[in-house]
Amino acid sequence: MSLIREKYHSFATQLKQLHSEIASTPLDAPEIRQRVISLQKFFQQQIVPLVNEDTSSLNGRVQSYSTETSKQLRLLEIDITFLQGARQTSTAKGRLDAIGNRLTTLIEYCNAILE
Length: 115
What we know:
Elements: H1 3-24, H2 29-53, H3 59-85, H4 89-114
Helix pairs in contact: 1-2, 1-4, 2-3, 3-4
């Protein structure tokens, strides 16, 4: 398994863990934010440099998914900001659902690279 695939596998595992924790236990917004910041750091420090230096024929596809993953991570941070601003339980639930959907998208991107 290439180093990029290993890092994406680790990243996907972390995403799945956060997704399942959000679905099963009530995490508060600051805790979710800290976890997402940790995911962003892992992605930026462990994956992006490898994608940028990879010269294989598959790099275009991996680069595209890497760009989309970066975008989704930024949008996830915005979702968390909206969660922190939610005043009603129904609004907070909707924001948590949006965060869950965003995490699912990120997991699907990782799975596409790992195929």
